[in-house]
């Protein structure tokens, strides 16, 4: 029995690691699409392609939720899809891929604090020192950006802060899903959660930004949108949510740091972006803190978790 639990934990970490690496390409693909369409339309098409990929799963998966659980699912779908992604990619439109990806390094910190508050996971002193170092790193990255609110191709403080705000919102999506998956299939919760979020987008985006464009979009942009939907949304969410059923949320969070690493590498090598000295130092602090958080910090879980009243 002990070996079975160890194997599940290993597979859980592997699933979260693959999800983190794939998420790291999302800002890169998003930046390509944003050259030809608005933030709302880009996010709409990202989830449109994700739902297309999930159609077989939606056809075979059935979940039986209570009224309270449906409310929870719809709430976390709202904050996890339209609210989080519209804020996050508005931030991306105002900063660089490299900066945006490095700001995601704050997510393990946000997740660890949220898990301590809502999931009653308790960390030792090493964990809290790691959180302080990671927060300092995020501040170095944000303050190293140019204080510009227009799309100039340069990093901006406003763009960086919008991304951090979207990550704080994403905390409730992660913990809300974990709560639901304690009693229901991770595949079903993922599929219906993404579908619910997409339907909300389908209502909001046309009202706010007009109908999504169909003509005049390059094949490169369509490819980026399809890749972001299938690889960076459908596949990642399925892997991440299943991984959360195997490992504590605060420990799984360290694998989100594969996202800033991948995103920064892609932004620098393929888009010709540059990072200042303070951003490199901040990124190193974030990654080092997150690794310490997982490898040396002790986590104790209680069975109860409350996210939505």
Task: Give a nutshell description of this structure.
The chain is mainly α and 309 residues long. The chain has helices at residues 2-23, 26-34, 39-60, 67-93, 97-103, 107-118, 125-143, 157-181, 186-209, 219-244, 249-252, 258-270, 277-295, and strands at 122-123, 299-300. The two termini are 35 Å apart.
Structure write-up:
The chain is mostly helical and 309 residues long. It has one domain (10-300). Helix content is 74%, strand content 1%.
SSE series: HHHHHHEHHHHHHHE
Q: Quote the distance from N terminus to C terminus.
A: 35 Å
Outline the low-pLDDT stretches.
1-7, 146-152, 303-309
Structural class: mainly alpha
Largest sheet: number of strands, sense, barrel closure: 2 strands, antiparallel
Strand order of the largest sheet: 1-2
Strand content: under 5%
> Based on CA inertia axes, which overall geometry fits?
globular
What characteristics describe this protein?
309 residues; mainly alpha; 2 strands; 1% strand
